[in-house]
Amino acid sequence: MPLTTASVPLPSPPPSPTLPRERTKYSSGGWGDTLFKNLTLIFALSILGIALAIAWELYKNSALPRHAFGWSFLTRQIWDPVAEDFGALPFIFGTLVSSALALLMAIPLGVGVAIFLAELAPRKVSSACAFLIELLAAIPSVVYGLIGIFVLVPFMRVYVQPFLMKTLGFLPLFHGPAYGVGMLTAAVILAIMIVPFITTISREIFLSVPIALKEAAMALGATHWEVVRLAVLPYSRSGIAGSVFLALGRALGETMAVTMVIGNRPEIMASLLAPGYTMAAVLANEFTEATSDLYVQTLIEIGLVLFVITIAVNAIGRLILYKMNPHAESH
Amino acid sequence: MKKLLAALMSAGLLGTGSLAWADALLINGAGATFPYPIYSKWFDEYHKNHSDIQFNYQSIGSGGGIRQITAKTVDFGATDGPMTDAQLATAEGWTILHFPTVLGGVVPIYNIEGVSGKLNFTQRAISDIFLGKITKWNDPEIQGSNPDVKLPDTAIVVVHRSDGSGTSYCWTDFLSKISKDWASKVGKGTAVNWPVGLGGKGNEGVSGLVKQTPNSIGYVELIYASHNNIDYGRLQNKAGKFVNCTLASVTEAAASVADKMPADFRVSITNPPGADAYPAATFTWLLIYKVQVNKDKGQALVDFLKWMLVEGQKYTQDLGYAPLPPQVIEMEKNAIEQIKI
């Protein structure tokens, strides 16, 4: 249930003197155009309407815990369904940390794969690989979860986590014991799940870089790496960022795969090897058997917090992008 | 995975069966997932003999079943834990009756390096492990009741259900009865604030984590453990005996509290007095309105309940459920008379 409204900003076309902007406004003035315009407007507004309706429903149906816990709901570290005492901080922490870690792994990998496929690989290899990567995005998340629990978890427990404890164990981030499941494992499975988003979109964007731009760089004596660094990447920056937002949206909202490997412990721990919990996971886990009104509404409030955080993270990302690249059209 | 299959199967049934429903009386119910396999078997068998009646049961969880029957959106509900007085009060004048249908047991499963076969757990051992007070497998409390096994000096990893479930309700209810500490610090519920351990989603998540994690212990439904050939331990009952979980010892648990059974059947049968009774067992209940506004549906439900108590019980053992003891069946037959059509 990714609650994201991320869209994919395409790179702004370079201003071309031969194509005046007015060109797009030419119209035959017939009823077809009016219909088309209004119809698409309705489509666009319906998205806004759905988002607002979701927000309103979540807000309306979480009145009990908002009155009972107030703002401290966001800062308290307690989850006791028996005593009906709830605080969401461990879940907020888990969602943000697992998604951030996943992005940290997925961005270099995803963009790297996209550069290889778009710039270096032979055309046939590139298309075949791109097809396979798109296929990865279509795998249901429960399948990732099963792969996670039966393949990734033992691998992490036997090889990765003991290695991290041995080499970086002086940092509290990598204190044991090695359970196999935990925050880091969840981040790895998330990273695998979101790489296809980053790679597929970034590859398309790299392929759309005007050939003249690359030839110009080559003519100036740039090496392959320099062409990518000086011509391809700057041109594609906002497009890559768009793919990252889309991936982040999926990571924040991912439920099934995460809950199967994160350990589901509502506690904030310094170690990345320790179990954690996310907002989406607790919703999936506890909603069906939540019986009291306060309990159900508390879970709905978690949904509201997830909704707000998803929007906030996306907005901040876009703001950073706009600051980085003020000439690009804001999306 | 089982749930996924069940969902796919029910989707398939909906697709093919919708034509046959056209002229049959459709009775809608929702609730517990634990008895779903036996309920769908019952409803299917019952429909074969009574082609004019069709049950539609959605296994959305006990919490959902209770919410739906109090909201009057279904004809009957189902739950793994009895409704509380507060929940019954929210049904606003509609009296809801509980009818036990079958019994289930919850068993401790473990994966200890170099140890195979059945372990015995004293009541103190099992509660202290889940409280995080016993942290090593070779703790005298565990080793003492397993003299033939050499338990290792390794840390215990506790695994519990992360999703709310009737299995957790039964397990925490059992722990609450045998440990004052557990009752005061944690309590019982479909989901609780676990003192220690990792959470696995569903029976498959718990057994998966236990299989994957050396020196771990968890708990699953008896049916799940026996269908998947997972070895499980014996629990010490109130009489002090270490009892293996079998369909017979689970039924015995219900039989041993039958003389103290309250009239509304809302009773926990964990830690019962019987010498051969398994201590972590539970009923699962159907929730039925006392006053049936629709005569046809009311009559159909009453007929079904009577069938379930006699014919229906014959299907239980094949599917891994423990049948009701005869005393409880007799009490229920009388209780059915309360339903006003």
Unreliable residue stretches of chain B:
1-6, 8-21
By DSSP, the count of extended strands of chain A is: 2
Q: Rg of chain A from C-alpha positions?
A: 23 Å
The CATH superfamily of chain A turns out to be: MetI-like
Shape of chain A: globular
Please give the radius of gyration of chain B in angstroms: 20 Å
> How many separate domains of chain B?
2
Q: Main β-sheet of chain B: number of strands, strand sense, barrel status? A: 8 strands, mixed
The pLDDT mean of chain B sits at 90
What is the count of β-strands of chain B? 11
Series of secondary-structure elements of chain B, N-terminal to C-terminal? HEHEHEHEEHHEHHEHEHEEHEHH
Q: Tell me the name of the CATH class of the largest domain in chain B.
A: Alpha Beta
**Full CATH superfamily name of the largest domain in chain B:** Periplasmic binding protein-like II
- SS summary, helix count of chain B: 13
Strand content of chain B: 15-25%
CATH topology of the largest domain in chain B: D-Maltodextrin-Binding Protein, domain 2
C-alpha termini separation of chain A: 23 Å
Assign an overall shape of chain B.
elongated
Please indicate the count of domains of chain A.
1
What would you note in describing this structure?
- The complex is a heterodimer of chains A (331) and B (341).
- A two-stranded antiparallel sheet of chain A has the order 1-2.
- Chain A has a single domain (66-324), classed as Orthogonal Bundle (MetI-like fold).
- Mean pLDDT of chain A is 87; it is low at 1-8.
- In chain A, 67% of the residues lie in helices and 1% in strands.
- Chain A has 331 residues and is mainly alpha-helical.
- Chain B is of the alpha/beta class and 341 residues long.
- Chain B has two domains: 2-103 and 263-267 and 281-338, D-Maltodextrin-Binding Protein, domain 2 (3-Layer(aba) Sandwich), CATH 3.40.190.10; 105-258, Periplasmic binding protein-like II (D-Maltodextrin-Binding Protein, domain 2, 3-Layer(aba) Sandwich), CATH 3.40.190.
- Helices cover 38% and strands 18% of the residues of chain B.
- Chain B has helices at 2-17, 36-49, 62-70, 85-89, 123-131, 140-143, 166-178, 180-185, 202-212, 222-227, 247-255, 295-310, 326-336, and strands at residues 25-31, 53-58, 76-79, 96-111, 120-121, 157-161, 198-200, 216-221, 234-236, 242-243, 281-289.
- In chain B, α12 packs antiparallel against α13.
- The radius of gyration of chain B is 20 Å and the shape is elongated.
- The two termini of chain B are 40 Å apart.
- Residues 1-6 and 8-21 of chain B have low confidence and may be disordered.
- The A-B interface holds A 78-83, 142, 146, 149-150, 153-154, 157, 177, 179-181, 259-260, 263-265, 275, 277, 281, 284-292, 296 and B 1, 4, 33, 60-64, 66-67, 86-87, 155, 157, 162-166, 186-194, 197-201, 205, 208-209, 212-213.
